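Homework-ish question, so no full write-ups if that breaks the rules, but can someone show me the predicted structure for this set?
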Amino acid sequence: MVATTPPSTRREPLTRDRVLRVAIDRADEGGVEALSMRPLAQELGVVPMALYKHVANKDQLLDAMVDAVMGEVNEAVSRVDAGSPAWQPTIRARILAARNVFLSHPWAPGLMVSRTTMTPAVVQYVDGLVGLFLDAGYSIDLTHHALHALGSRALGFTQELYDDSGEADAQAEQMLEQMAAAYPNITAMVAGIVHDADTTLGWCDDQVEFEFALDLLLDGLAALRARS
Amino acid sequence: MVATTPPSTRREPLTRDRVLRVAIDRADEGGVEALSMRPLAQELGVVPMALYKHVANKDQLLDAMVDAVMGEVNEAVSRVDAGSPAWQPTIRARILAARNVFLSHPWAPGLMVSRTTMTPAVVQYVDGLVGLFLDAGYSIDLTHHALHALGSRALGFTQELYDDSGEADAQAEQMLEQMAAAYPNITAMVAGIVHDADTTLGWCDDQVEFEFALDLLLDGLAALRARS
DNA sequence: ACCTGAACACCGTTCAAGT
DNA sequence: ACCTGAACACCGTTCAAGT
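A: Not a homework solution, just the prediction itself:
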């Protein structure tokens, strides 16, 4: 047999980082609501109570997970800032880079809106974004309004309310037909969009919708800046 | 003693409506995460399992609660439609009326974004809103984009990410001072807004921010409609 | 001093035993 | 047939007993 690490140190020591890493992996796979302390400990080959040496409680674990994802966002954003001189494309690119990170951690947005404490990495990200607005000549007031108007979109995600991106299966179509009488407008809209669809992605593309809304807001804000 | 309802029928019978009503009351007071089946049953003077005669499980109870709130919204909206002929003020008024309802059920937004099933009252509300856009001459495509761009704001709420409406207490101010070096932009923004504040509400007013963002979006959409 | 198993105080829900 | 208590399979976390 090949010489590996000696048996006594085979089980790599439990660190806060390792706890965070597998917690995030588990959340990526099964969602955050399926993440509980006991199975997490088991996956780490450790007794449940051992986790409490590295995180005070589950709440702090969740905060740390969010912070780690925002750390990824900050790293991704720093790679993207090859500095176009125009402020609007810069902000746009930064937000879309952030969005890319959230696409691989779909549980993170839900966690972020439910949590009230702002972690350091979030503060860092927002500080950078505020800096871009101020550098672009936005007043402090307008920058503040912009942050609220963008809402979670400033961080790079939206909480889609109801999933309308799924392909229309037989059951849904039948239900739609029954709804036609009671809800004529929504039925017309769905029918019209399905008909016009030029992709096979279903009848709406999250990326397109995100960019549409983002540009609508950034254009509107730019007009307000120019006017002031 | 005064003749009241006879003792045998004193305890009014448990109905689905009564379950919903006190469930919503409890959520209004303590938040939805503090709502559990056992205490809910106790408040209703009933054994926990009795609830399961009226709701299949807790998930269905939560869906029904959301539907009830959206019912309130639809009712409020119907009272507001004293029909201005212009589409934009009409949509604006409708959304602000919806928002008013959510202000007294602060747990509802969080529940709505976490749930994937669209209840009848939601469909009804969205159908009405889509109707307004279509009547205003919006194309089906633009209406669909509008719905996505407005997001939860179309329903009358935003999930505020981090609460910055609190008054700056001593601890927060001290922390802010320590942050000034690391996060100059955000510090400048907070300082600037606190200084300019013309209200005692703290340094931002949710209602004002909501209307600002709503108008920004509706104005932008109106421009797109005019151009097409 | 450190680690850990059992225990505590909860959950939502099943199910069999009572009426 | 209907109602319901006890029980089941989980939670997060405390704590005292082991080393």
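Now go work out the reasoning yourself. Hint: The radius of gyration of chain B is 23 Å.
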